[in-house]
Amino acid sequence: MTHAIVMGGSRGIGRAIADALREIGADVVAASSTDVDTSDRQSVEAFAARYPETDVLVLNTGGPEPKTFAQTTPEDWDRCHDLLFTGFCSMLRRVRVRDGGYVFLISSMVVREPTPNLVLSAAYRAAFSEVFKVVSKEYAGREITCVNIAPGPFDTDRTRQLVKDVKELAGSLPMGRLGRPEEIGAFVAGIVKDRTKYISGIIDFDGASSARSI
Ligand SMILES: NC(=O)c1ccc[n+]([C@@H]2O[C@H](COP(=O)([O-])OP(=O)(O)OC[C@H]3O[C@@H](n4cnc5c(N)ncnc54)[C@H](OP(=O)(O)O)[C@@H]3O)[C@@H](O)[C@H]2O)c1
What we know:
Layout: E1 3-6, H1 12-23, E2 27-30, H2 41-50, E3 53-59, H3 74-94, E4 96-106, H4 119-140, E5 145-151, H5 157-162, H6 166-172, H7 181-193, E6 201-205
Parallel strand pairs: 1-2, 1-3, 3-4, 4-5, 5-6
NADP nicotinamide-adenine-dinucleotide phosphate is lined by residues 7-14, 32-34, 36-39, 60-63, 83, 106, 108, 151, 153-154, 156-159.
C-alpha cells in the first residue's frame, strides 16, 4: 500500500489532497498544525522521527500574515524563514522518500509574481523552490518525482483571511471563480495513481490568473 504524509492536511488544499489520496487507496497521515508546526524546529524534528519513511510526501503549511515590506519586523522574517523554509528542508533531510515515490510542494503563484502584501511568503517560497529544484534533480536518479504546485486564489480559509470580499475577487478572475481544493487533490492523486513520473518543475494552478506567458 502507498504511504503518504500530507502536512497541513487538516484543512483547505492539504485536506483535499489527503482525501483524494485516500480515495485511491493510500494510507495517509494528514497532519494539522498541532501534529507538526513547521515554524517550530523541534516540532518538525519530532514529527519526522515519527514518520521516517514514506512513498508520497506533501510539503504544505499555513501561509504567513499579510504584510507589506515596510510593515515587516526582524521577528517576522525569522518566523517565516522557519515556517516556509527550514521546516521543509528538515522534512526533506529527515524523511526518506522511497524509490519511485513522489514529493509535492504547495507553494504559491507569488513565487513567480510577488505581490506587495505577501512579501514574506514570496521571499521564502521562492527560496525553498530553489532547494526543491536541486533536490528534484538528485531524487530523479531514484525515480522520485518532485512537483511544485503554485496555486492561485483557492476557496479556502486562507483566502477568506486575506481577502475582504471573496465574491468580488472571484468575479475578477479569468474563470469567474476561485479554484476548488478538490482540483489540486484530484491532480495529485491522478499523478500518483497513474504512476506519472516524467513531470517536474512548477505547475501554475491558477485558472489562468498569472500574467506570465512563459
Ligand atoms: N488558498 C489559496 O488561495 C492559496 C494560494 C496560494 C498559496 N496558498 C498557500 O497554500 C498553502 C495551503 O493553503 P490553504 O488555502 O489550504 O490554507 P488553509 O486553508 O489556511 O489551511 C492551512 C493548513 O496548514 C496547517 N497549518 C497552519 N499553520 C501551520 C504550521 N505553522 N505548521 C504546520 N501546518 C500548519 C493548517 O492546520 P490547522 O488546521 O491545525 O490550522 C491547515 O491544515 C498555504 O501555505 C497558503 O499560503 C494558498
